[in-house]
Amino acid sequence: MDLEFSDPAAMVKNLRRLPAELGARLNSVCDGPTLEAVKAEFFGPHGAMTLLCKSMTKLQKGDRPAVGSVVNEVRNELTVALAAAEDRIVTAAVAAKLGKRPDPTLSSAAAISGLRHPLSIVRDRAVEIFRSMGFSIAEATEIETEWHCFDALNMPTSHAARDSMDTFYLPDDVEVANVKKHEDGDGRYLLRTHTSSVQIRELKKGNLPLRIIAPGRVFRRDTTDATHSANFHQIDIIHVDRNVSVADLRHTIDFFLGCLFGAGVETRYRPSFFPFTEPSFEVDVRSKNLGKLSNTWIEILGCGMIDPKVFEAVAIDADEWSGQAWGIGLERIAMLIYGIDDVRHFYRNDRRFLQQFN
Asked: Is the predicted pLDDT of residue 5 greater than 80, yes or no?
């Protein structure tokens, strides 16, 4: 089709006649390939709309808004016309296969039911185990404050996790409904980097003794690959009472891992460091029920006794109360139990993947 790009008036004239030209072309279209060819005449690399849009760069800046408004209007008209033609062609094709028009009174095809996600399966199993030990569930907001996420957990301002390269901070001028900052006021909002912030919110309530688990989603600035994701899930475990000891910590962890991975599971505790626990340990697990990883020591979680400075931050007497705290990743558990080698599978919503667990 002949197009003119000499001035804004000519461009608008060209644009205004496109819907009529497309309508005339669509009247004779009766199959998909022909429809695609017509669509290319208008929206392809050398199509009329494409060339007209490219030519806008030749207009004076003052003329571009008026012409741009017409471009959007005409583009919408063309898109609607093409969609209607596609519906007409599909309906005609179905009717031809059936030998008649579709009967709307016929029963529909069987509905596809939803599938349980492996992370949900693992979460529910973990909750079941902890409930059997007398733990209850506590949840809190995914948007947190620096004080709850870092300061109260004895993480200094120089800690690497607080750097903007590791944490998703919200803009300074953002106010978040229903998320109160600490009374002393301490800065920015962020997407929580661990569910340990729930520990602080629960301890602040002062309802001791306390035995809770805090499952939830957390966020970190990780580059996505087979073993890392900017979004993943944790369960934090907190038990505070009088005279809680490392023996209680080890008993709780061993019982949980035994229920999770089956009989014969072994655990190994290695000294480590976390700002919010003292003493702290890394825990390795070995089990005969982990497929290719059977009988191999695998790091599974970090744990320890709650640091007195954490109790001090929430006005709890560390001389009277003590507690255990540890956390474990749901993706980590699911990958070990089901032999999954790429964490990205959990977030792709691929039905073929999900069917394996239902």
From this structure: no
3-state secondary structure of 222: coil
* Mean pLDDT value of segment 41-64: 81
Half-sphere exposure (Cβ direction) of 298: Cα atoms closer than 13 Å: 21
pLDDT per position as a tens digit, 8-45: 788 888 888 888 888 888 888 888 888 888 888 888 88
Residue 180: the pLDDT is: 65
Rounded CA separation 136/232 (Å): 22
**What is this structure's pTM?**
0.66
Q: Count of CB atoms within 10 A of residue 44's CB?
A: 15
- State both tokens at 295: 């009988």
Architecture of the CATH domain 118-357: 2-Layer Sandwich (3.30)
The phi and psi torsions of 354 (rounded to 5 degrees) equal: -65, -30
Res 176: pLDDT: 76
User: Beta partners for 214?
Assistant: 236
CA distance linking residue 1 with residue 47, whole number of Å: 9
Structure-block tokens of residue 316: 């709890």
3-state helix, strand, coil in the chain (%, to 5): 45, 20, 40
Q: Tokens 């404050």: give the residue.
A: 145
Please confirm whether the linkage preceding 209 is cis (ω < 30° from 0): yes
Name residue 297's amino acid: W
Average pLDDT over residues 84-102: 80
Q: Quick: pLDDT tens for 172-221.
A: 777 777 676 655 556 788 999 999 999 999 999 999 999 999 999 999 98
CA 149, distance to chain mean position in Å, is 19
d(CA 202, CA 138): 8
In the chain, domain spans: 8-98, 118-357
Structural contact between residues 302 and 271, judged by C-beta atoms closer than 8 angstroms:
no
Per the CB < 8 A criterion, the answer to whether 297 and 284 are in contact is yes
Beta bridge partners of 346: none
- The structure tokens 């399966």 sit at 121
Torsion over CA of 170, 176, 178 and 179, rounded to 10 degrees? 30
